[in-house]
């Protein structure tokens, strides 16, 4: 037993070292597997403040794995003088100081399109739930009201025949569109650029997309152009039978205006997996019957967890063996 | 005003007379429109017991409109000696004594495939909700637990790649299958007969379908062959990662066995729009986290309500003007 322990620790010393920030939600399911391949520094287990921890232990660290909510700022990067690679567990990269990484020549690998199918599924699920009042009906039955009050009668709205506007027709947006086609929806989209590979109608601005759509599905990245892109004007253009679904980032919608529009009946409903100040969700939203609120779980499936492990460990192994990364973010 | 009222009532006397049983859920939204075309007898508004009401007022009634839950039995039909047509607002006809209708030569018109899209949408919505834990996540956020307890971590299950078994590949089953294809599911089915028009794999019995499926979606009619077709054996064959969705009739599943399997973790979850003794839903089901319960609303959309009115009034008008019915049930 002692000999074994000695052997293990000797071998562990030979493993390439990485640091994990966050940790990514999926990390805990694969801690053992990562630890069999890498010597893993876990700052969240230390009593030291992060800068001191990094100064003491991370001077020679060449690769980091980080979650989608951990803010990898320039001041943290300053404590990692040997860093060459950041692997993010997330699709969005708004939590990483990409400019600083670029200046320092630090490569960034992302989850890329790995979770697009998972996210698209949740978008369609939230949309059907809002339109067909599934969670609301579920509350009605669970609370015993069906027996007490008789039939549940607020009629749902049929997805078939609806005009769906997709905001951001990247990998996720396209996966959503593909899944909505056999429901008999007409798809149009707004994106930075018109996509020549698709036949969906392009709308040159978000206001026009909202005006011509019954449903808006937010699938774009959060950046300074898209922050609060969905403001009161856009919501009013969507109209009082309109429904909005957000599986991207909370701050793309001006949340205060969204609450106002939902409360006033200026739009019909919302399905939200993301919020401006997670995990805080405004009380006003939490009591509305015409919204479905989801705790940022669009990628949280058993299947995506396995995909995450394979891509993240694959990227790290490629890096340490001087092979090309599996999912490098282009240094635009 | 009086003259108008007199004129209206004179004209109303000329309108063909119908009786409405139930009434169908959608009827109330279209009462005015029906009443402008037909003189409508409404037994539910009378103090008289139904047989007396019928004897007193319905001797000459030739056409009836009935809901999907009103039991149109031989003993009620006996009080309607002039009846020639029953128009049902529902797809299923298990509430009508079809043998007695056939014996008497009473034509039966049904909603036929009118609501197939609405029902298929709800089936997919319930399935995504159960797999991706949408209603459970919604409860978590609404109850403020995200802020208090941190991330919601029970991982969902991805629909992509799943084996879906459809029980009854009629119009609804086919609409469900069509919508699931772009999710990357593999579809197979069990039906009374193999369908030559589809390429999905046919399974000759329900047990084999359950054994080879991750998900069962019940879309068949309720009859003596299908009552309790989904028994404990079938559920155990589906297995502890299996999910079942029912948008057909409650009694196709042995509900007591379903509750047992859900409580014991013998299957993973269920999305149910129908129950054995509606509106009663067992307390044991109402407290489970891995089920989504829906108060029999698969057809309850604004769009289906309009479709119902058009088909029902169209059938009645066709009948009274001696034209072929729009949706006659074949007298097999």
Automatic annotation (TrEMBL), chains A, B:
The keyword Oxidoreductase applies. Residues 124-298 form the D-isomer specific 2-hydroxyacid dehydrogenase NAD-binding domain. GO terms for cellular component: cytosol. The keyword DNA damage does not apply. CDD domains: HPPR. PANTHER family: 2-HYDROXYACID DEHYDROGENASE-RELATED, GLYOXYLATE_HYDROXYPYRUVATE REDUCTASE HPR3-LIKE. This is Glyoxylate/hydroxypyruvate reductase HPR3. It comes from Buddleja alternifolia.
